[in-house]
Specification:
The structure is a single chain. By secondary structure, the chain is an alpha/beta fold. About 45% of the residues lie in helices and about 20% in strands. The strands form two sheets. The chain has an eight-stranded mixed sheet, sandwiched between helices. A two-stranded antiparallel ribbon has the order 1-2. Strand 3, helix 5 and strand 4 form a beta-alpha-beta unit.
């Protein structure tokens, strides 16, 4: 005999458990008539009654009681298995919100190393910056500078202090912080050059300026020899190490820091905690490289 449709069995199982078509309809968010129709189709398919209708109440027949023993166990096992699969998939996926330039220039090239160490974990990367709503976005972690105020109940772990450097190509025609240098600036951090001048005492007020929307565009322009730019050590560590770019006056602390933010503390040994530890270690490795003098100058 061909098995009846799973939907009819599900409707029957809920109705049998509730002992009422009305309550079953409420639980399944359907109409009372939809429940009655599915039960009638199931009874026609099987060839015998599953419920007795008496005085607007329903009672399982002996055949209905026997079927309910099987469906209740079946749907409980099915629900448990689906939940287990979802938990397994979700527990091995980490979603990270990260500033576009850091994601592009630093994180993505290093994710290969992470996957080699932790092949069972997948990282979903969302390019974004600034304030974040974990409830709306659904992300697990956010790598952010503390240039905005987050709520006190947010779980926050300091990763490192921010260090900015004046970046240029080794063969750029002006390499002595002169008035002839063209300054490449980004609208995403418009006060960067002003902060740099205050920290270093170097006056760039008379220099020509070219604005780009993002740091990665400024870095690309510097690689093309269009001028000098300011960049976080995280954004240019690979170009500094390969000597495509240099930081002639080094990297200095500019007053902010990078934090990993989460809605709550991650469970011990979870994929989120593993990724947080890996990310923190790799960021501080990059900091060591860019603070090493031999990587900064010609």
């Amino acid at each position: 005999m061909k098995l009846p449709p799973l939907a009819s069995l599900h409707f029957f199982d809920v109705a049998a458990r509730c002992g009422s078509f009305v309550k079953a309809a409420q639980e399944l968010h359907v109409t009372h008539s939809a429940i009655s129709r599915q039960i009638r189709l199931l009874e026609e398919h099987l060839g015998f009654a599953l419920f007795e209708r008496r005085n607007r109440a329903v009672f399982l027949t002996s055949e209905g009681k026997l079927l309910f023993q099987t469906t209740s166990s079946m749907f409980e096992q099915l629900s448990a298995t689906v939940n287990l699969l979802n938990e397994k998939i979700e527990s091995n996926v980490v979603s990270l919100s990260c500033e576009p330039t850091i994601a592009m220039k630093w994180l993505i090239p290093r994710l290969t190393d992470f996957y080699q160490q932790y092949p069972h974990i997948t990282v979903h990367l969302i390019a974004a910056g600034g304030a974040i709503d974990f409830t709306k976005t659904g992300v697990d972690l956010a790598l952010r500078r503390n240039d905005f105020k987050w709520h006190d109940d947010i779980y926050a772990v300091k990763v490192c202090t921010e260090r900015m450097g004046l970046i240029q190509r080794p063969d750029y025609k002006n390499s002595n912080c002169s008035d002839d240098m063209t300054l490449l600036s980004t609208t995403s951090r418009p006060n960067a050059w002003q902060t740099w001048q205050q920290l270093t005492g170097i006056d760039f007020s008379q220099n020509k300026k070219i604005a780009y929307e993002h740091f990665y565009l400024c870095i690309q322009a510097a690689l093309a020899g269009q001028g000098v730019t300011l960049a976080s050590f995280l954004m240019v560590v690979d170009e500094i190490a390969s000597k495509q770019l240099i930081a002639p006056v080094g990297f200095i602390e500019e007053g902010s820091a990078y934090y990993l933010l989460a809605q709550k503390a991650p469970p011990p040994d979870s994929a989120i905690e593993i990724f947080m530890k890996w990310l923190t270690e790799r960021i501080n490795e990059s900091l060591f490289i860019t603070m090493n003098d031999k990587y900064q100058k010609k």
